[in-house]
Amino acid sequence: MVFWIALALGAACSAPTTRIGLALGVPEGGGEEEYLRALRQQIRLGLDAGNLSLKWDEFEAQSGKPLEDGLGVARFAGQRLVLTIATIDTVRRRLPKDVEGLAWDDSRLAERFEAFLGKVLARAKPYVSWLSLGNEVDPYLASHPDEVEPYLRFLARARQVVRRLAPGTAVGVTVTCRDSQKRPDLARRLQAGMDVTIATYYPLDGFRPTVGSVDRDFAFLLRLAGDRPLVLQEIGCPSSPLVGSSEDLQAGFVRSVFEQLGLHGGRIPAAVFFAQTDFPSSLLGVLEGYYGIRDEQFRAFLGSLGLLDAKGRPKKAWRVFAENMARLRPVGGEYL
Predict the structure, then answer these.
(1) Cβ-count burial of 70 within 10 angstroms (0-12 exposed, 13-18 middle, 19+ buried)?
(2) Under 8 Å between Cβ of 201 and 272
(3) How far apart are CA 246 and CA 265, in angstroms?
(4) Using CA atoms, how far apart are residues 132 and 92, in angstroms rounded to an integer?
């Protein structure tokens, strides 16, 4: 899930075109110096791809600042970006107020979105390799089946706009691994006509991790992609005992994902781990409100996805991640 503007950096994997990312985060209460330290930490790992999420309504309300912030990091670090435009964001539509009540296939919405894409791509095109037209759209559409057909028409038109404005940019729409497994027909319909399959991957039963299924999950996602490349927009596993996890289990998951990337890297041009640090406690209440879930396990899941804890201290998964990155791209520097 993309819960904030996830700025992630990545490195070449077993195939020359494969990049690995890690969503940028800073310790709780951190300021500018901590942000720069976190960025330097990623650069020392040899990371060079990223994920930037934009919510259409927020972009316009903030005069494009979320995009400019993300592109600033991309310019600094030489990133290639997965750009996710959250027209749907997991549980809700994210449209500006003047069009929020329109049907997805209303021509007025399509024209507004085309103008928005023009503004975004004029700035972002040099940095974007993969573009998603919606974030984790399958949970929302499963709860609003009457919107499926109009949204598919919206996607088809938007895809043509991107191809005209930014030829060479691979277009897709983000689905979740678990919801796609529950509703494969919907997931397949969302891939029709797309250039790339984009997915988030959290190995969960409810909020409890099921890390023994990594090889089967990768096999499923690759079948879903078919002859399209597969981009893993987010890959995460919690470490909290409150959801039946641990630092050892999280580290084992990271190790298993790297093994799968080694086997299938030629089909996966980008894979972004989530996240560098645990979310600060001050953010967890905000996220519970956004997703409409007040649950101790949900909070524990959200609050323990980092490879570093909220104070910036390494978990066992951090060492596994760093050792794999050192093996794939030894660039020097201290990062453990």
Answers:
(1) buried
(2) no
(3) 27
(4) 16
Instruction: Flag whether 6 is in a domain.
Output: no
Distance CA 135, CA 1 (A): 8
For the chain (336 residues), the mean pLDDT of every run of 10, in chain order, is: 45 56 91 90 85 91 85 79 96 96 97 96 94 98 98 98 97 98 98 97 95 95 98 98 98 97 94 95 89 92 97 97 88 47
**CATH value at residue 239:** 3.20.20.80
Does a structural domain hold residue 3? Answer: no
| Chain Cα centroid distance, residue 63 | 23
Domain count, the chain: 1
Number of residues in the chain: 336
Beta strands (DSSP E) in the chain are: 8-9, 19-23, 49-54, 80-85, 88-89, 92-93, 128-132, 170-172, 174-176, 197-201, 204-205, 208-209, 230-235, 270-273
Q: How far apart (Å, rounded) are the C-alpha atoms in residues 91 and 136?
A: 8
CA 279: distance to chain centroid? 16
Which pLDDT score, from 0 to 100, does residue 79 have?
A: 75
Using alpha carbons, list the distances in angstroms from residue 132 to 156, 218, 224: 12, 20, 16
Look up residue 303 and give its two tokens: 């609050």
Task: Yes or no: say if 81 and 50 are a contact pair by the CB < 8 Å rule.
Answer: yes
- pLDDT value, residue 331: 53
198, 229 contact by CB (below 8 A): no
Q: How far apart (Å, rounded) are the C-alpha atoms in residues 70 and 58?
A: 14
- Round to whole Å and give the CA distance between 34 and 138: 36
Q: Please say whether the beta carbons of 298 and 207 come within 8 A.
A: yes
pTM for the model stands at 0.93
Range of the domain at 138: 11-328
Strand partners, 209: 204
Measured from the Cβ of residue 152, the count of other Cβ atoms closer than 10 Å reads: 18
